[in-house]
Here is the input.
Amino acid sequence: MDPNEDSQRDQSGQPGTPGVQQQYATQDGSLDMGCSDFELLKRALLNERMAPDILQYKEELVERVKAGLKRQEGELDGMEGQRDYELVRQVLSYERDRVRFLLKAYLRARLEKIEQYAGELLAACRNLRAAIACCLA
Here is the structure.
């Protein structure tokens, strides 16, 4: 057993994967243990789709995912034309497409809700203006 192995284990006792699993604070302040950004984005998408109201935007998560996609794009460009890395490049390309699809689905779900509630919000503002005008008149 490697002496450094204990320092690389997470709190559940499983060997840690540096850079893949991280701790993130959730909305209520608790820590999200061992979830990748992909898993957090998948959870945010499901929550957004299932909730009747617009949920709080996951700005930090979206920015981290965008930065990761940009970084992976650079890695893929660096592998361009290298036959030794063609399979790795293809797998990374599929992974990039998968994450990009999930990010677009999350943003699309939010936009659909915003469009759905925009009319209701405008009508509420008009009613409020009319009520204020009546009170001031």
The longest helix spans residues 86-136. Helices lie at 37-50, 59-79, 86-136. The first strand starts at residue 22 and ends at 25. Confidence is low (pLDDT under 50) at residues 1-26, 28-33.
